[in-house]
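Retro notes (design track)

What went well: tokenization of the new backbones is finally stable.
What didn't: we kept losing track of which sequence belonged to which structure.
Fix going forward: every design gets posted as structure first, then sequence, in one message. First example under the new rule, 289 residues:
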């Protein structure tokens, strides 16, 4: 073991890192603590809210969410979980399959397809809002189940970015030696067997990471949802909670903060579940390598 560093040298080489980390954590924790404080403050107005509640602690805002006085919050919560799960699963399945094709296969238009995919990803979703609205307004007249103000229609609209994780997964897949594929082909394995039994276990960390990114991206989506979802029973948390602030920003701040705190719960639970795959599999792969 190395000798203990002198105080001045420790501050110069190591101590400043703790200072920077402390500032970064404080900067990241400030809005979270503010939201939690606003959700527990019984007054819950913009003027009275601070980092530490000065009016005591109360769960009145959480009770208002579930008594129906501000809207069908449980329905918004269920809609959000349905949309996030559906879109995340479709996005990961499509992105993983497309990443295998772009990484392992050689075909005409492969490079152009990758460049076109990158170009499409550069355009924000707001540019497609009017086109999506007109398209689903027309579809709703033929098939009402997937029209405007429907959860299923919103799920289908959000799957337009189903290839949004291709570049991340492809980058990891490119780092896997092709000798594994060649050895499997010698044993008679086809593309599906190579993809499912060889590549997918190795790709588990990046798949877990992209699943979390897709879930968080959908749960916080507001622009398309605000245009697409107008029926109160079809709204998601982002659309429904924003409507509370739009109606009365001062009086509903505490209720909005309580809803924001409850919105974090699925993300935290999903992260806790996927964390073991991200950390454990990555560490195992490093040791084997």
């Amino acid at each position: 073991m190395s000798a203990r560093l002198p105080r001045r040298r420790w501050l110069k080489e190591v101590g400043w890192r703790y200072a920077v980390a402390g500032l970064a954590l404080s900067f990241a924790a400030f809005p979270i603590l503010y939201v939690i404080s606003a959700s527990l403050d019984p007054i819950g107005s913009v003027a009275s809210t601070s980092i530490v509640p000065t009016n005591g602690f109360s769960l009145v805002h959480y009770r208002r969410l579930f008594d129906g006085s501000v809207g069908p919050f449980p329905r918004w919560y269920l809609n959000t979980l349905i949309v996030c799960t559906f879109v995340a699963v479709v996005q990961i399945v499509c992105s993983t399959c497309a990443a295998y094709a772009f990484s392992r296969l050689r075909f005409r238009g492969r490079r152009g397809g990758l460049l076109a995919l990158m170009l499409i990803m550069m355009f924000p979703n707001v540019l497609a809002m009017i086109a999506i609205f007109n398209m689903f307004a027309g579809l709703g007249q033929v098939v009402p189940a997937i029209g405007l103000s429907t959860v299923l229609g919103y799920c289908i609209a959000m799957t337009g970015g189903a290839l949004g994780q291709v570049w991340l997964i492809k980058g990891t897949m490119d780092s896997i030696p092709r000798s594994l594929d060649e050895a499997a082909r010698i044993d008679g394995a086809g593309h599906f067997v190579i993809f499912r039994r060889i590549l997918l276990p190795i790709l588990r960390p990046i798949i877990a990471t992209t699943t979390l990114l897709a879930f968080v991206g959908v749960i916080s989506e507001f622009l398309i949802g605000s245009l697409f979802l107008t029926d109160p029973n079809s709204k998601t948390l982002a659309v429904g909670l924003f409507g509370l602030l739009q109606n009365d920003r001062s009086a509903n701040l505490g209720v909005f903060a309580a809803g924001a705190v409850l919105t974090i719960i699925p993300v935290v639970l999903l992260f806790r579940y996927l964390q073991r795959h991200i950390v454990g599999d990555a560490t195992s792969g490093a040791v084997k390598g």
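Added context from the reviewer: Residues 2-58 form one domain.
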